[in-house]
Amino acid sequence: MNKLWNLFHHPRAGTILLRTTLALLMLLHGWAKITHGVGAIEGMLASHGLPRFLAYGVYLGEVVAPLLLLVGVWVVPAALVVAINMVVAVLLVHRGQFLSLTPVGGWALELQALLFVGALAVALTSRPGKG
């Protein structure tokens, strides 16, 4: 039975799979910002008394950092940018859902949590300079 389990022991492949999946999922969010702009985010920031120009930071967390993750360059900083992006997204957009469940019993923030924890896992398992 150990031989069977050993076939699945590929930590490097697992890290690359997680990094690539995180990057692709975040890029989809980034593509929405590229095609539709960040006007909604500007409005949310302004409603909290924050400068509207901060909305353009979303391009770092949802386009630039994921592209860096995909190509394996500056992986640790890029993953940390994604994690910070998710914290800001929760604070700005999803704050009211923190203790909420979906109608089927899942946590309302499970996607945001998986992206945040996935980004932290990528940062923690990647060697700086090695991707």
Q: What does this protein look like?
A:
The chain is mainly alpha-helical and 131 residues long. It has one domain. Helix content is 68%, strand content 0%. The chain has helices spanning 2-6, 11-36, 39-47, 58-71, 75-93, 110-125. It is globular and about 60 Å long.
Please specify the SSE layout and strand pairing.
Layout: H1 2-6, H2 11-36, H3 39-47, H4 58-71, H5 75-93, H6 110-125
Helix pairs in contact: 2-4, 2-6, 4-5, 5-6
Average pLDDT number:
92
Strand residues, percent? under 5%
The helix tally amounts to: 6
Largest β-sheet summary:
none
How would you spell out the order of helices and strands? HHHHHH
Distance between the termini: 32 Å
**Oligomeric state as shown:** single chain
User: Low-confidence stretches at least 5 residues in length (pLDDT < 50)?
Assistant: none
What sort of overall outline do the alpha carbons produce when their principal axes are compared?
A: globular
| Total beta strand runs | 0
Helicity range = 55-70%
Give me the Rg, rounded: 17 Å
Structural class: mainly alpha
> Could you say how many structural domains there are in total?
1
Question: What attributes characterize this protein structure?
Answer:
131 residues; mainly alpha; 6 helices; 68% helix; 0% strand
